[in-house]
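Consider the tokenized backbone below.
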């Protein structure tokens, strides 16, 4: 085990070679075999059993979520249009490109259709491979076309089974990470069981299958497992190179499959930066990880036809700034406590200034504004001034982008996960503070080594990384509910590792003056087994009931709408409406859209705000002019938006539009003093009265209980 006192050198395998390893050849009963051959045989047996358990749990999780999906929708029995409608909002948009590639006359024609796409945004030709992270759909469609499985497996099943299969990879990666941290596969077993029993808070794959995070998070988990192994001591050069390759591949795949990759990896880079500054990680390995992040992101940038949002990411600016600052400040890790603190403060300020300067310079050169809505949202969310910006408020009013609800913690506590997590987090945070202080104060001098050996608190590099990782992603989850899945899955790993770790129990028992080696081994195995028995006894019946509960997809109004569009409108027709509904229109009917849910483009955001004037207080002539400017032939109005009650006053879509347009909101309540009454009634309400000023421009051609479709007149 690496002690912090012994890591003053900066090479990739800096730890002293003569350090004793407390993890080798340890049996579950805590005894170390005296026979080397017996110990080797025991290790092989343990790894074999642990590997079988990991694969079995991964496959069981995959089957579990697939069964839940089938039972919830009766997916195997419903019509194709109903299956496609079940891919809600942006999920339907992403799946439509898989369907488009499958239906193309050839792979080359399918790729050409994506690179020169004129159906996703009317009157514009865009490169889908540049704008969106859909290479996984491209790869999967090509694989489906070349494999001899068309007669046995429908394209939609090939798609969803791949996603459910990735859940197996996800669980195995979490299992392996916990095993590597604790030294026992029992920890991995507990992590996987917690992941499954806390499914509501650890994944949503069964009802949002094509969502980008469901593709990306398994690769992120693999990357974390590889980093955990990389940070171990005594790695041979070949092992280190292979592990770095695994980290790079996982980082690349994670970056390729999710547009928010840069923000997640920025948090990861911050974790590495903090630990490197506190001398708790080998500097050379941290440098390699910075380089891997940059190179992985740049490779994705090339594949996405030099997507400017990637080039202008804070991650690239930050990592480059850290490497430059480290070159400037070569003696950062020398000197006493006050000296080092002063250097660290200067180092942090230098990195921060360089990051902002480099990022500003890149965005200025590239004229980049694609991600400005994210920073507007963050500014408003954390109280740096109120905003009337439509895009920022659209995010602020969504529950998924709000604070993490308190009932999340009660659910996590019911499986004992949150209690154990809090216990381990407290112990390791205290240990990390002590270790960091010793490093900065320079008390790891050689002459004190023997004197302090018995009492020194230590923290392995992999455990230190896991600690800071969970703290930073915990902060992200607390501030933004949608990001909780990055935290809760790692929470399972972190809690199970701490509960099964000899180092954690040794630290606690030493503080209580109760430490013996035998007692530590008994506790680290008995308590996890007791918790596993508790989880099995309490949650197994519930899981069985859940698997036996059968429901069926039912959305007749949307099905009726999609069937009408396919039967009664030309293939070249252009549809306007809410971006969530239009994603389904594209998937189910193949018609051209005016806007869609992939919001990472400034022009699209401005276009969406204009299209949404159908729910604002605007004149029929204004709305008609806006819609025709985007080539609209039909507009779909939804009663659920026009008369929305899901959000409170001030967060309804019509309220956001009114405020952005400078109009007072409907209903009782306060309005800002500078808001004024509109000269016109609300368009989506007034158009249903069939007044001459509206029928001149719009003719109703379809309606049911939910939707109203109007055809636009083509005035000369």
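A designed sequence for it:
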């Amino acid at each position: 085990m690496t002690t912090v006192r012994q890591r003053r050198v900066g090479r990739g395998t800096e730890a002293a070679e003569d350090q004793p390893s407390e993890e080798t050849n340890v049996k579950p009963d805590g005894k170390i075999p005296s026979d080397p051959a017996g110990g080797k045989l025991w290790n092989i047996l343990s790894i074999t059993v642990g590997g079988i358990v990991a694969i079995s749990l991964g496959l069981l999780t995959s089957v579990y979520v697939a069964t839940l999906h089938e039972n919830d929708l009766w997916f195997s029995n419903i019509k194709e249009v109903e299956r496609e409608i079940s891919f809600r909002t942006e999920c339907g948009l992403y799946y439509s490109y898989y369907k488009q590639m499958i239906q193309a006359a050839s792979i080359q024609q399918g790729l050409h259709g994506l690179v020169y796409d004129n159906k996703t945004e009317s009157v514009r030709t865009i490169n889908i491979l540049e704008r969106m992270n859909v290479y996984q759909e491209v790869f999967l469609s090509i694989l489906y076309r070349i494999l001899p499985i068309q007669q046995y497996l429908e394209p939609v099943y090939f798609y969803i089974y791949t996603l459910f299969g990735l859940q197996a990879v996800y669980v195995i990666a979490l299992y392996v990470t916990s095993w590597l941290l604790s030294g026992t596969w029992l920890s991995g077993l507990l992590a996987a069981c917690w992941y499954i029993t806390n499914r509501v808070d650890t994944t949503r794959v069964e009802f949002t299958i094509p969502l980008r995070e469901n593709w990306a998070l398994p690769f992120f988990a693999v990357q974390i497992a590889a980093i955990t192994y990389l940070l171990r001591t005594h790695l041979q050069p070949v092992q280190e190179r292979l592990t770095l390759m695994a980290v790079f591949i996982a980082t690349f795949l994670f970056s390729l499959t999710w547009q928010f990759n840069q923000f997640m990896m920025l948090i990861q880079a911050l974790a590495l930066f903090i630990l490197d500054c506190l001398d708790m990680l080998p500097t050379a390995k941290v440098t390699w990880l910075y380089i891997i992040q940059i190179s992985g992101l740049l490779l994705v940038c090339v594949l996405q036809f030099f997507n400017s949002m990637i080039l202008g990411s804070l991650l690239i600016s930050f990592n480059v700034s850290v490497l430059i600052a480290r070159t400037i400040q070569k003696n950062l890790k020398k000197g006493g406590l006050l000296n080092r603190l002063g250097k660290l403060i200067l180092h942090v300020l230098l990195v921060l200034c360089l990051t902002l300067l480099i990022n500003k310079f890149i965005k200025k050169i590239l004229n980049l504004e694609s991600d400005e809505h994210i920073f507007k949202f963050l500014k408003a969310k954390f109280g740096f001034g109120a905003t009337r910006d439509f895009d920022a408020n659209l995010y602020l009013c969504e529950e998924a982008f709000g604070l993490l609800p308190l009932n999340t913690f009660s659910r996590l506590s019911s499986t004992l996960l949150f209690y154990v997590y809090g216990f381990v987090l407290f112990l390791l945070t205290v240990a990390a503070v002590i270790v960091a202080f010793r490093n900065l104060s320079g008390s790891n001098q050689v002459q004190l080594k023997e004197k302090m050996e018995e009492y020194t608190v230590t923290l392995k590099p992999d455990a230190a990384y896991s600690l800071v990782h969970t703290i930073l992603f915990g902060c992200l989850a607390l501030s933004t509910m949608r990001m909780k899945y990055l935290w809760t899955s790692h929470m399972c790993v972190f809690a199970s590792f701490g509960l099964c770790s000899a180092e954690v129990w040794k630290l606690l028992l030493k503080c209580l003056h109760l430490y013996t080696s035998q007692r530590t081994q008994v506790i680290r195995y008995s308590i996890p087994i007791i918790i596993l028995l508790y989880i099995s006894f309490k949650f197994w019946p519930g899981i069985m009931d859940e698997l036996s509960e059968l429901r069926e997809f039912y959305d007749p109004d949307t099905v009726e709408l999609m069937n009408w569009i396919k039967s009664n409108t030309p293939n070249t027709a252009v549809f306007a409406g809410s971006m969530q509904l239009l994603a389904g229109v594209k998937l189910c009917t193949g018609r051209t859209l005016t806007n869609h849910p992939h919001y990472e483009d400034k022009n699209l955001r401005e276009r969406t705000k204009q299209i949404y004037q159908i729910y604002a207080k605007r004149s029929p002539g204004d709305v008609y002019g806006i819609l025709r400017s985007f080539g609209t032939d039909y507009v779909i109005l939804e009663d659920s938006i026009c008369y929305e009650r899901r959000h409170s006053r001030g967060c309804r879509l019509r309220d956001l539009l009114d405020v952005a347009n400078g109009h007072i909101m409907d209903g009782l309540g306060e309005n800002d003093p500078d808001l004024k009454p509109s000269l016109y009634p609300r368009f989506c309400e007034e158009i249903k009265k069939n007044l001459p000023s509206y029928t001149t421009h719009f003719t109703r051609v379809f309606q049911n209980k939910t939707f109203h479709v109007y055809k636009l007149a083509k005035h000369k």
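The first strand starts at residue 574 and ends at 576.
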